Amino acid sequence: MARLSAQFWVQAYLARLRGHSIPAFVTAHGDDMSGAVLVKLNPLDGTATAYQRRFDLATDRRQWDTLASGPEAEVDAAISRQRGFDTDLWVIEVEDRAGRHLLGEPGLDD
After folding, report:
1. Phi/psi at 76 (nearest 5 deg)?
2. How confident is the chain (110 residues) per 10-residue block, as mean pLDDT?
């Protein structure tokens, strides 16, 4: 299966969020072709959750896992550490009081 460029995936994800009236912003622009994508969900209550994709060898699929969850400052620190390891990393911040991020939907879930 051909892999989408990171920039294309990010633009498609932002469009899907807009279609559900969920505000989202690119807070770190990674490598256009092959940068990894991290999604920070901010429910606007002082907490946050950061999601990253990983490859599951058992199922031979990519899936979204939690990188960090808790007070927003702690999640931001975890994201900063990740950016220190990977300067090509994209960071998308999703702001939704209901906690929607749509990462489990078809086309975004693997």
Report:
1. -60, -35
2. 79 96 97 93 98 81 90 98 94 98 81
**Residue 55, pLDDT score:** 74
Q: Residues near 20 by Cβ (< 8 Å), separated by ≥ 6?
A: 100, 102
Find out whether 48 and 40 touch, Cβ atoms under 8 Å.
yes
How crowded is residue 110: how many other Cβ atoms within 10 Å of its Cβ?
Answer: 13
Q: Are strands 37-42 and 90-95 parallel, antiparallel or unpaired?
A: parallel
Count CB neighbours of 97 within 10 A.
9
Beta bridge partners of 24: 94
Q: Which CATH code for domain 6-95? A: 3.40.1530.20
pLDDT of residue 1: 46
At 29, the amino acid letter reads: H
Residue 59, pLDDT score: 76
| Cα gap 63→59, rounded to integer Å | 10
- Residue 74 in tokens: 């702690």
- Which run of H or E residues covers position 28? strand 24-28
